[in-house]
Amino acid sequence: MHDLIRDVFLRYLKNPYLDKMADAAVINFGEKKLCLTTDSFVVKPLFFPGGDIGKLAICGTVNDLAVMGARPLFIACAMIIEEGFPMETLGRITQSLANQAKMAGVEIVTGDVKVVEKGSCDGIFINTTGVGEVLQGASLSVEAIRPSDKIIINGSIGLHGIAVLAGRKQLDFDFSIKSDCAPLNKLLLPLLKNPRTIKFMRDPTRGGLATTLNEITQGSNWGVMLEEKAIPVTPAVKSVCEILGLDPLYLANEGKAVIIVADEKAGGILRQIKKHPLGKEARIIGQIEKSPRGKVYLKTISGGKRIVDMPVADVLPRIC
Amino acid sequence: MHDLIRDVFLRYLKNPYLDKMADAAVINFGEKKLCLTTDSFVVKPLFFPGGDIGKLAICGTVNDLAVMGARPLFIACAMIIEEGFPMETLGRITQSLANQAKMAGVEIVTGDVKVVEKGSCDGIFINTTGVGEVLQGASLSVEAIRPSDKIIINGSIGLHGIAVLAGRKQLDFDFSIKSDCAPLNKLLLPLLKNPRTIKFMRDPTRGGLATTLNEITQGSNWGVMLEEKAIPVTPAVKSVCEILGLDPLYLANEGKAVIIVADEKAGGILRQIKKHPLGKEARIIGQIEKSPRGKVYLKTISGGKRIVDMPVADVLPRIC
Asked: Which terminus of chain B faces fewer neighbouring Cβ atoms within 10 Å, N or C?
C-alpha cells in the first residue's frame, strides 16, 4: 500500500521540495532559511512505557527539524478526537504536549480541534507541524557524504518499538523497556558549530536504523559498512527480539539520530555527544564505503557479512 | 464537548499566541512576519457539489492566512488513510489538492502519510498547515475596529453548508447548490494596499456569519448591526433553509470573508471587491455600533430587531 500511495503522490505532487523525499523542507524566507515539517501521530496505545502520544508528537517533529540543522521554534498542533473520548485522558495528553514543548524550547502557537462521531477515528490522532530556523553554516545533505565518513548513533536502538509493543500487552513478559522518546535538538544543534564536520543527520524512526541507512546509501550512492558489535542494543531489547524473531535494526527509535561525520573529526564529535545525557552511550557504528554502492552491509559478530535491506513491509504499524 | 475541550487546552497551553484564539499565529521570523495556521479536514462526504476534501484542505488554509493579511506561500500536508481506501479516490483527491494549490499560488513542500487499520479512521483525514508572509503595513486586529466601520461580505452565504448536506443525500430535492469553496488570497490581499482602511478580516466557516460576527463583537467589545435585507442569500439556499428549518447565518462558508472597513473608505473597497470574480455579489451588510456592546443584532426585513447569538451546538458536524 505504501508504494501505491507514493506513486499516487509522485504523479500529482512533483516539485523540487517534495522530490527530495526528506522529512522536512528547507525554504528561503527573507534573509533566513526556514525548515518546515509535518507528522501525524496515530500511535497505539496512546500511553506506553516511557511516553505517550503527546510527548511523541512534540519529540517527533522537533527531531525532524533538528536533523535538518534547524533550531525548532514553533509548533502548530491539530487534533482529531473521537466523540466521547475521556476528558481526563485528553488532559493528560495535552499536559504532556505542553511539558515536552517546554522541555524542547518550542512554542505551540496555533492549533485546531475536530471532533468526529464515535467509530470515525480511533480515540485521538495528533498532527504537529514544526517551523525551525536553519542554523547559519549548517549545510547538511547526502551529497556531502564521502567514503571514510564515520557513522555515529547516540545510543541504544529499538527501545521505542519494543516499548510500544509492551504497551499493547503483546508481550507476556516484563523487561521494563522504556521508549527512548526525547527531543534531540539540544544534543544535535551544538555539533553544527564545528564547520565542515557534520555531513548529514537523520532520525531512524519508522523502519529503524536499517531503513535510514538504506535511504542514505540510495541518496548518496555510496555504500555503508556497519559493525554489528559496535551497535548499541540493550540486553533487554536483544532478548525480546530473540524471543519474537524481530531484528533491532528495523525497530523504531524516537530519541536517536544517525550522524554522518568527516572521518578526521569523528573522535572529537563522539566525545562531544557523550557529554550530553542523551548521548552517553553514543558509538561509532560503521562508515561510508565506496562499494557496494547503494547498499548497507553488516559485519556480523561472528565474522560474517550480510546485506541489510530495506524492510519488505511496515514491521510494526501505528508505532508513531 | 467543544467547551470541555477548550477548557482542557486553556488549562495546559496558555501562551500569548494561543490566548488570542485566532485561526492563525503571527510570528517574527528574521526581519519578516510569518503567519502559521493549521487545520484538519474531516468533511463527510469526501466529494460534494462544488468541491472535495482536497480542494477544501487547500482553500481552508489559504483563506486562514489571507484573512490575517498574509500571502500564502507554503503548505505542509499530512494524510491519515484507512487501509483499503481506493487508490483511484486517493488519486482524485491528490490531483484536486495539487490543482488547487497551483490556483492559489502555494507550494506543497512537505508531507506525511499514515495508514491505519480498517475501521480506525473514516476513509481519509487531511491536515494542512500553511506558512504565509504577513504583508508589510497590514495590521489587522479587532482592536482596530471602531463604531461606524462597515461590514462587507464578498457574496452569498450558506452555500458550502448546504452543498455538503446535499452531498450526504440528506436532501430529497435538487436545488443544484454548489459549495463556494475558493481561495480568497487574490481577492483579499490587494485590498490591503489601501493604508489604514481594512481593520479586520475573517472567513466565516464553521458556525457561519453569526459565529464570526459574535467573535468580533466579543473581541472588540463593540456591537454589530446587521441589515437582513442586505445579506446576500441565494433563493435556493433560502428555500432549503425554510424547508429544513436552518438559519443561513449559521451555515458554513468556504469562499467568503467578512471584511471590516473604515466607514469613509467602504464604498471604494466595495467597488474594488466587486471587480474580482469572487466578489461580484459583495455587499455592505451592516456596521459596527457602540451598543449593545459585545452583541450582534439583526434589523429584520419586516422591520423588527433580534439578537443573533452564538450557536448553541455544532449545527452541522464534519462540514469541513
From this structure: N
Least Cα distance to B263 among B152, B101, B124, B115 occurs for: B152
Using the Cβ of B78 and the Cβ atoms of chain A, whether some distance falls under 8 Å is answered with yes
Quick one: CA dihedral A111, A94, A103, A266, positive or negative? negative
**Chain A environment of B10 (Cβ under 8 Å):** none
C-alpha cell at A71: 533550531
The answer to whether A42 and B127 are in contact (CB under 8 A) is: no
φ, ψ for residue B132 (rounded to 5)? -130, 165
Which residue reads 459549495 in cell numbers?
B179
Query: How far apart, in whole angstroms, are the C-alpha atoms of residue B170 and residue B172?
Result: 6
> Helix B87-104 and helix B53-66: axis angle, to 10°?
30
User: How far are the Cα atoms of A87, A91, B106, B212 from residue B7, in angstroms, in the given order?
Assistant: 10, 9, 34, 20
Helix H, strand E, coil C: the string for chain A is CHHHHHHHHHHHCCCCCHHHCCCCEEEEECCEEEEEEEEEECCCCCEECCEEHHHHHHHHHHHHHHCCCEEEEEEEEEEEEECCCCHHHHHHHHHHHHHHHHHHCCEEEEEEEEEECCCCECCEEEEEEEEEEECCCCCCCHHHCCCCCEEEECCCCCHHHHHHHHHCCCCCCCCCCCCCCCCCHHHHHHHHHCCCCEEEEECCCCCHHHHHHHHHHHHHCCEEEEEHHHCCCCHHHHHHHHHHCCCHHHCCCCCCCEEEECHHHHHHHHHHHHCCHHHCCCEEEEEEECCCCCCEEEECCCCCEEECCCCCCCCCCCCC
Query: What pairing do the DSSP bridges indicate for beta strands B70-82 and B107-116?
Result: parallel
Query: What is the distance of C-alpha B315 from the center of its chain?
Result: 16
Contact A50, A179 (CB under 8 A): yes
Provide CB contacts within 8 A for A20, sequence distance 6+. Answer: none
Give the model confidence (pLDDT) of A301-319 as tens digits: 999 999 999 987 665 789 9
* A 40-59 residues with CB < 8 A to B: 40, 42
* A63 in Cβ contact with A102 (< 8 Å): no
Q: Give me the pLDDT at residue B1, please.
A: 65
Say if residues B64 and B185 touch (Cβ distance below 8 Å): no
Nearest to B227 by CA among B161, B314, B289: B289
**pLDDT tens-digit map of B125-167:** 999 999 999 999 888 999 999 999 999 999 999 999 999 999 9
The count of residues in chain A is 320
Listed by number, the residues of chain B in 11-40 with a beta carbon closer than 8 Å to a beta carbon of chain A are 11-13, 15, 17-18, 22-25, 27, 29-32, 34, 36-40
Q: Is B61 on the interface with A (CB under 8 A)?
A: no
C-alpha cell at A37: 515539517
* 3-class SS of residue B278: helix
Residue with cell 578526521: A264
pTM: 0.96
